C-alpha cells in the first residue's frame, strides 16, 4: 500500500536508529495508513479514502465524514477530497 494519504496530513518521518553502542543509522517511521470507505450522509454514498488512524478518530469525533470535511481548511485536503467537500457544501446549501 502506498504511504500517501487523502486525509490526515501524515507523512513518513526520518531520523536515526540508535544502538546501545550509540551507532546511528538512518531510518523512517511510517504513518499508520488505512484504506477505508467512509459513508457520507449528505451525498448518500460511501467515499473511499486513504486515511491515517489518528485522522479516522478525528472523523469519528467530528460526527462523521461530512462534518469533518466542512470543519477543516480546504488547503489541508487533497484535490479529490476538496471535490467531495465542495459537493457536500453544494448539497447542504441546496437543502
Question: Can you describe this structure in just a few lines?
Answer:
With 95 residues, this protein is of the alpha+beta class.
Keywords for this entry:
Ribosomal_bL28, structural constituent of ribosome, alpha+beta, two-stranded antiparallel sheet, Ribosomal_bL28/bL31-like_sf, ribosomal protein
Can you put this structure into words, describing what you see?
The chain has a domain at 33-94. It starts with 12 loop residues before the first strand and ends with a helix. The model has no long low-confidence stretch (mean pLDDT 92). Strand 3 (33-40) and strand 4 form a beta hairpin. The protein is built from three helices and four strands; from the N terminus they run E-E-E-E-H-H-H. By secondary structure, the protein is an alpha+beta fold. Helix 1 packs across helix 2 (65-71). The strands form two sheets. A two-stranded antiparallel ribbon has the order 1-2. Strands 3-4 form a two-stranded antiparallel sheet. It is elongated, with a radius of gyration of 17 Å. It has helices at 53-62, 65-71, 79-94, and strands at 13-18, 24-29, 33-40, 45-52.
